Amino acid sequence: MKKAIILIALLIPLTNFAQDKLIQNIYARNYQTLNGSWQYIVDPFDNGYYDYRLNENPNGFFKNKKAQSKTDLVEYNFDTSPLMVIPSDWNTRDAKLFFYEGSVWFKKDFTYSPKKGFKTYVYFGAVNYDAKVYLNGEKVGEHIGGFTPFNIDITEKVKEGNNFIVVRVNNERHPEGVPTINADWWNYGGITREVMLVDVPEVFIRDYTIRLEKGKYNKIKGKVLLNKAVAGQNIAINIPELKISDAASTDENGFVTFSINAKPELWSPENPKLYDVILSYNGEEINDQIGFRQIETRGKEILLNGEKIFLRGISIHEEAPFRHGRAWSTDDDKVLLGWAKELGCNFVRLAHYPHNEHMVREAEKMGIMVWSEIPVYWTIHWENPGTYANAQTQLDDMINRDKNRCAITVWSIANETPHSDARDQFLTRLAEYARKKDDSRLISMAMEVTGQSKNLSKVEDNMNKYVDIISFNSYLGWYGGSIEDIKTRNWEIPYDKPFFVSEFGAGALQGKHSDGTEIWSEEYQARLYEETLKMFDKVEGFSGTSPWILVDFHSPRRLLNNIQDYYNRKGIISDNGIKKEAFYVLQKFYQQKENEFK
Ligand code: GCB
User: Fold this and answer.
1) Largest CB tally within 10 Å, which of 114, 260, 405, 588?
2) Mean pLDDT, all residues of the chain
């Protein structure tokens, strides 16, 4: 009995409030932005949410109450509160909030004219971590998870003329959360991605998937789903450049499939060809840019469009270049991806959570393949059903948002997780879920090195059966061992699958120099890169790497003053955008690999 109560208690904070299914390709819809200035109130004791008995207060700050007379006691006032530009993280927008973890209330006024026969949604690209959303003083939805989008149907609540929206954002860490309390990145709080009001017809195309049929180069498959189960609706698909113009009728589930003979030019890093695809229904035209490719493995090789490739990657955190808050805009993303391009990358590992949609779309345009990951990181609560549900929802949302992005070649379900039966069960369920949902990509996870002796390192993991690529993080020469050890190390990876080194690296303070024997110097980092790349290049099945990491990033775990100062210094570019020596070592290696694979 007690157990059941605890279980329910654990589940309650993780369930979503009337969560609406995600609308595919939000940027192609008719929308009005709610980005810009929002008033905010910092509420460390959640005074706007609970009353003094710690019950949820029905007259919380979301009422946006204003004193009506000289004696009316109202102990908050959005109108006189400071403004913050949204999207953003509060940590880098307000110096007082750099270390803050707790609740902040945001409010924005807006005017609106609802259109007859249309539905209105409010869409959030991401809010970290727990969002409660109120419109005109009433709760309309809530969401858990800091890196995936959500939309809420507000048709019944939005008014002609003036409206106000209030969001209570809480970024406290929870042991049972995803991620859990311990992680090596900054816990940026806030409305960190775009907010928009979206108009769609009463019945509309909510979701679609368009790609090459698995294993074929001459057939495009399309699946389209309406928001309502209505039969006999005519849906048109057009791909002008391929002279495709087709239409079909929905079944009783509001669902249509297309199977079209076509031989599109294939997408690849050398030729990132995208086609305009237009779906039309009920007065709405949804425009997307879609590329076509096949990704698969054969024995120890990764094949893109049937040809063996080497993934010339780099890991990236979603942190803005130079200003070091959360990155969210195309401009931020272009700088990060531009550096990756300059390095010679054809691949990026977007660590350790889904990055913003612009990032993936830009990578696709630039011809960069993407590894996209959910924050199942380190010591997740494997036995907690609520934690599993949360992880699966994040996986589901990540796949739903980006399933039409051909650049995404790998879904990653976890990073460096400690082995146990409960962990294996949790991850097996996730891997099977991802596979069932999307069989057009590879599945992987960043594993750990499991055995080390003087001359031999091993990677053994029960999850080997469920992944397509054996990926692992190796810090030989940094967290244990020396650069000399790297020179003599052999590897045992006993699986007939390609392997990918999802991380290796060393900390270096840009501008700190030595003869190469001192840690924190650029030379030490560069030597470690040289030797590590040489070491792995000798091992059969080495199919790519995404060293840790493109740019120095904020981390609360990095406290060494005058060296780290709350930055993880493993970037090959410094926090102020200066390339370290290791950048050029990796660049040279990638030039060689590019030539080898021409
Ligand atoms: C890792 C983690 C990454 C850390 C990195 C480090 O293995 O996956 O999130 O930031 O090591 O620098 O220690």
Assistant:
1) 405
2) 96
Distance 184 CA to ligand 1 centre (A): 6
Return the ligand 1 atom nearest residue 478 CA.
13
DSSP state of 266: P
Residue with tokens 């930055």: 567
The domains located in the chain, with CATH, are: 2-201 (2.60.120.260), 216-292 (2.60.40.10), 296-596 (3.20.20.80)
Question: Which is it for strands 255-261 and 275-281: parallel, antiparallel or unpaired?
Answer: unpaired
Nearest CA to ligand 1 atom 9: 184
First to last CA, the chain: 64
Report which ligand 1 atom has the smallest distance to the Cα of 446: 8
Judge whether residue 16 has pLDDT over 60.
no
| Whether residue 2 has pLDDT greater than 60 | no
Per-residue pLDDT tens over the stretch 466-505: 999 999 999 999 999 999 999 999 999 999 999 999 999 9
Task: Give all strands (DSSP E) within 436-587, no chain letters.
Answer: 442-448, 451-452, 456-458, 470-473, 490-492, 499-503, 542-545, 553-554, 567-568
Structure tokens at 165: 């929206």
Pocket lining: 503 vs ligand 1, CB cutoff 6 Å: yes
* Eight-class DSSP state of 475: -
Instruction: Report, as an integer, the average pLDDT of 542-554.
Output: 98
- Would you state the structure tokens that stand for residue 377, as one six-digit string? 């990181």
Q: How far apart are CA 441 and CA 405, in angstroms?
A: 11
Judged against a pLDDT cut of 50, whether residue 11 lies above it is answered with no
Which pLDDT score is estimated for 19? 65
Q: Quick check: CB of 416 below 6 Å from ligand 1?
A: yes
Give Rg (Cα) of the chain. Answer: 25
Which ligand 1 atom minimizes the distance to the CA of 479? 13
Burial state string for 405-414 with b = 16 or more CB within 10 A and e = fewer than 16: bbbbbbbbbb
CA distance 326 to 57: 32
Q: How far is CA 274 from CA 68, 222, 262, 333, in A?
A: 58, 16, 14, 19
DSSP state of 399: H
Is the beta carbon of 46 within 6 A of some atom in ligand 1? no
Evaluated on CA atoms 98, 104, 108, 113, the torsion sign reads positive
The answer to whether 473 touches 502, Cβ cutoff 8 Å, is yes
DSSP state of 81: S
204 contacts 119 by C-beta, under 8 angstroms: yes
Residues 6+ apart with CB under 8 A from 431: 413, 443, 445, 463, 466, 467
Cα dihedral sign, 45-47-49-52: positive
Ligand 1 pocket residue status of 546, Cβ below 6 Å: no
